[in-house]
Amino acid sequence: MCGVVANAGEKNEFRLKNDHAAASCSRDVTLPPSRTRESPDAVKVLPSPDGIYAGVYSIGTTRSDVNEFKRKTGHVPAIVFTFHDWIVDADFAEARPKLRTFNADMEDKGITPVQLARQLESQGSVLAVTWAVQCCDWTSYAWWFGMRKTKVTVPRLLKGEFDDYIRKVAQEIKSFDKPIMLALFSEFNWQSAMMFGKDGETRISQADDICGKYGDPRWPDGPERLRDAHRYVIDMFRAEGVKNVTWFMYANSGYMDPKADDYSVWLHPKFNYPGDDYIDWVGQSTYFIDPKWGRSPSKDAALIEHALAPGYAAWGEVTQRPMFLPEFAAVGDKTLDRSAVLTDVMSKVLPGMPRVKALTLGDFLIAEICCQTPRLGEHFKGEITAWRKSVGDNAAYEFRVRTGPPVR
Questions:
Q1: If residue 385 lies in a helix (H) or strand (E), which one and from where to where?
Q2: Which of 193, 196, 318, 341 is deepest in the core (most CB within 10 A)?
Q3: Which pLDDT belongs to residue 5?
Q4: Do residues 183 and 129 touch, judged by C-beta distance below 8 A?
Q5: Which of 141, 135, 145, 123 has the alpha carbon at shortest distance from 187?
Q6: Beta bridge partners of 79
Q7: Interior/surface letters 137-149, b for 16+ CB within 10 angstroms, e for the rest
Q8: For the residues of 214-262, what is the DSSP string, one character each?
Q9: How far apart are CA 21 and CA 31, in angstroms?
Q10: Buried/exposed code over 17-35 (b: 16+ C-beta within 10 A; e: otherwise)
Q11: Which of 307, 323, 305 is nearest to 315 (CA)?
């Protein structure tokens, strides 16, 4: 989610101390063989050959925001994207935090992910959830200075310490028996950047050796752990007979832009990606601004050519899987009308990027507070008109997902 670096007051946390830290690393690596493959009778969310799925992203007020999307767009959302992390924020540093299943309440109180998925399925929408193993408490100064650590970590996951929990969630999702989309990490490159060192809890900028402390000595350790975590969990879901999950992974806005503070060649998707046998959709957050403004209300937002294009190109070097933009929004403030930039991006930019096949608009209160994305049309009514014309009435966008067997 946006606002990570700005909130923490940190800079260049992705930059190496010195070249020696990458002495054994190689930029030319090959994925190890897949341990399992998807069942041929699994049911996946498939990209449309004709258009881009349009939906809504919301945390905490998801059900009401689905209704707002209908009102503003003229259609039900094809995909509804939200979060349901392994633990709640309040339990981050607890010695024995409670692990949340898919039958536990969401941030949108009074409903569980399985219940929400059923409600959405009845209206023709698919639920997409970041079921996040969060390495870090991004907004905590105590965490940034090493005084606060989580007890739920990828190294523990890879040792099998959460197997019973993973199996329980797998069975809950299996019982839903309709398509659902899952991601294991929010903005995965932020997560893998913090999983270096022998302990798997060291950030890349503080690691004296970024490739020699875990697994293949040619492979950057954080992305290698993240890759293996995906394979571990997905293999377990398959062993449990789960056939209704579409797996996706996504990076942060501005991913792989060499001018960005969070850029590192060692966080390229080729190091993080577990392979087409495991992942069905790839993508990234996209927070963009109007180039005519001459200023940005947020440090996390950029012109669309910086917010999306570098990541689009980097993903294309690794896979031709369809792209999903789960955290997608035009950034602004109460003085800036986003109608023009919405029209341009939705009508011209995205239809010109053929691998972009889905997006979910961030249009909810928490995003307005944290990400400088005011509610669509709240301050400038023309924004809803621009969105309706460029998305709701545009044949380039679709509001009913297609499903079918896995694409090899």
A1: helix 382-387
A2: 196
A3: 45
A4: yes
A5: 135
A6: 126
A7: bbebeebbeeeee
A8: SS-TTS-HHHHHHHHHHHHHHHHHHHTT---EEEEEEE-TTTT-TTSTT
A9: 22
A10: eeeebbeebeeeeebeeee
A11: 323
